[in-house]
Amino acid sequence: MSGAGPERTAAIAARVEAFVRDVVAAYETDPRRDHHDCPAEELVAELKQKAREAGVLTPHILPDGSHLTQRETAIVLAKTGLSPLGPLACNTAAPDEGNMYLLGKVGSPQIRERFLRPLVEGRTRSAFFMTEPALEGGAGSDPSMMMTACHQDGNHWVINGRKAFITGAKGAGIGIVMAKSADGACMFLVDLPDPAIRIDHIPGTIDSSMPGGHAVLTIDNLRVPADQMLGNSGEGFQYAQVRLSPARLSHCMRWLGACIRANEIATDYANRRMAFGKTLIDHEGVGFMLAENLIDLKQAELMIDWCADVLDTGSLGTAESSMTKVAVSEALMRVADRCVQVMGGMGVTKDTIVEQVFREIRAFRIYDGPTEVHKWSLAKKIKREWKAAQAGTEQP
């Protein structure tokens, strides 16, 4: 995979696609699952080892530590998403992929060596501790409501608070914890497990692709060395913004791959299944659904490419990633829903991944910001720009 440019990206993507289709897909019926139906750690470790042997572990980060561009990453991560297990096998799954991106961008050499390297090598998992219990008044889609507090005590920081929907906290070896000091938001790197972080509850959720589920937990006098703060006190939201847009986009990349595969399965079914004297594909109602899937999949791909190009210019791309998250999650929901409908009874069974993809995409419309929050944020931007334009037209 020497060289650079489109040829290099195409070679990486081809190897990833072959691995996911030929190796990973066979594990989709593997019974090694926890009681929430999430992949067991043993299964994840086995898949990562196979990816390591195939040379496709963490394929978006090159051997010299450099990161593919966002446009290149989009091509590769879509291929890992062709199976719900693909991102786990290839080490491109959330929240690890977003955490790797953040630490690679802003981590000190010491932090990159201690916390980033094990993630890139697939030797451990991570969790991102930001969201808090909504009914307790904590931060969710509005991070300014953060209640988890921290204060300095000598050469340590002490953190107390509650967190909710922390993906993969159970079983993770590294945590990125957000808390609020007198200066504002802060971000810390911590080793897990830690007795000061107590998992209270892991709710059953509609999705089941992420090991460890989405934990609700209590942080009780967690002591973190001062040199494990990312940046300085009060800079936490600044670093969260660095992670935010690429993480939203990579979700879109992975689930685009999943819906491409679901559509392949539904298309195959429609071309084989006979009803009322002809194959399903020849019934206009079914054929039109599959045609609409192609349209939505292409539009999702184009939105992802557009947003990736914006991020590759160095822009934070906050508005662009919001638009892409809304457009892609809603389009893929339509695709997944049609795939279920085309397959009828088969579509709601676990005999194919179509049923799981439908569930996962429904959850995707909520995490990393619900559709409505992104629309609200965009509406505020529209208002700000309108007011600025009006002020510019006023005569002195």
From TrEMBL:
One of its GO terms (biological process) is fatty acid beta-oxidation using acyl-CoA dehydrogenase. Residues 234-381 form the Acyl-CoA dehydrogenase/oxidase C-terminal domain. GO terms for molecular function: acyl-CoA dehydrogenase activity; flavin adenine dinucleotide binding. The keyword Cytoplasm does not apply. The keyword Flavoprotein applies. GO terms for cellular component: cytoplasm. Keywords: FAD, Flavoprotein, Oxidoreductase. Its cofactor is FAD. It comes from the Bacteria. Residues 127-202 form the Acyl-CoA oxidase/dehydrogenase middle domain. Belongs to the acyl-CoA dehydrogenase family. PANTHER family: ACYL-COA DEHYDROGENASE FAMILY MEMBER 11, MEDIUM-CHAIN SPECIFIC ACYL-COA DEHYDROGENASE, MITOCHONDRIAL-RELATED. This is Acyl-CoA dehydrogenase. It comes from Sphingobium quisquiliarum P25.
